[in-house]
UniProtKB/TrEMBL annotation:
All copies of domain DNA-binding transcriptional repressor CapW winged helix-turn-helix, residue ranges: 17-93
Name under which the protein is recorded: Predicted DNA-binding transcriptional regulator YafY, contains an HTH and WYL domains
Domain WYL intervals: 120-174
Xref: InterPro entries: CapW-like, CapW_CTD, WHD_CapW, WYL_dom
Keyword Transmembrane helix: no
Keywords associated with the record: DNA-binding
GO terms of molecular function: DNA binding
Length: 286
């Protein structure tokens, strides 16, 4: 955004002060006005402190606000430029503190929580820090009963819905994806043998998205804007180990979506290579 005031360095502001200045900046941007009383209510500060915060904001962003004696509020000027960079629409929509100021109700469709047990995560992190392998009882979806395996934690990954553990399975001699809720029990630790480089994890694949070919010109334009495409495409870098999860989350494994993969043949080749690499292994339905 042009002519924006320079963003103050975080080390120049106390955390609490920066939080209040950000609240002023956001209220001015979204509501067009800032009330001293709202700052007092939201942060539990005194009247003098709210006055100081508004003064400091005007010093850092001159020309952004003007005090209106009739409204008894600070109003955003026509040439307002956010002090802390481009605002996040998603953050504002989900901000509970802005609920009263929003002119429309906000409802988020619920979904089942796919939580990670913090005690399980803690055990895994501690083993990694200590250079230990863990004996884990793990339930796969292609076997009726869980089985024991020795693993060395390697990395964490998320598809935006669930967290996965990337681990070296000492029993099968390969890197595998594991889900935390399927770790039924732990039974022992031992010094971890050196695990080979996870070539699948280290490999990064470029995914090129474009509007579906069946869409009209007008439909393609809004999809390009929605996905922030440049030149009709959006490029995303995805680790090969997470590629299948990414494609499924984006519903790119279907033919009726609004976006499609422009380099589908390349990605199919990658996935086929992964399938061949783990043929006969625990490639399960996640």
């Amino acid at each position: 955004m042009t002519d924006a005031p320079p963003t103050p360095a975080s080390h120049d502001l106390r955390w609490s002060q920066e939080a209040r200045l950000r609240a002023i900046d956001q209220a001015a941007f979204w509501d067009g006005r800032v009330n001293r009383s709202e700052l007092i209510r939201r942060f539990g500060i005194s009247v003098p402190q709210a006055t100081i915060d508004l003064r400091d904001y005007q010093t850092l962003a001159p020309g952004n606000l003007r005090y209106d004696t009739r409204e008894k509020a600070y109003l955003a000027e026509e040439g307002f430029r956010p002090l802390f960079g481009e605002p996040s629409a998603e953050a504002w929509l989900l901000d509970a503190g802005a609920e009263e100021a929003r002119p429309l109700p906000v409802v988020v469709t619920p979904r089942p929580e796919r939580r990670v047990d913090p005690w399980v995560l803690r055990r895994v992190v501690q083993a990694k820090r200590a250079g230990l392998a863990l004996r884990v009882l793990y339930q796969t979806m292609d076997q009726p009963e869980p089985s024991w395996r020795w693993i060395s934690p390697m990395a964490f990954g998320s598809d935006g819905v669930r967290w996965h553990l990337r681990a070296w399975n000492h029993d099968t001699g390969r890197h595998e994806d594991m889900l935390f809720p399927r770790m039924v029990a732990f039974d022992g630790e031992r010094p971890a043998d050196a695990a080979p480089v996870d070539e699948v994890w280290e490999r990064v694949v470029s995914v090129r998205l474009r509007p579906a070919g069946r869409l009209s010109e007008g439909q393609r334009r809004v999809i390009e804007a929605d996905y922030q495409m440049v030149g009709g495409e959006a490029r995303l870098e995805v680790r090969a180990a997470l590629l299948w999860l990414f494609l499924r989350r984006m519903r790119l494994d279907r033919e009726d979506g609004l976006v499609e993969v422009a380099n589908r043949a390349e990605l199919v080749e990658v996935l086929e290579g992964l399938k061949a690499r783990f043929q006969g292994g625990d490639v399960e339905r996640r």
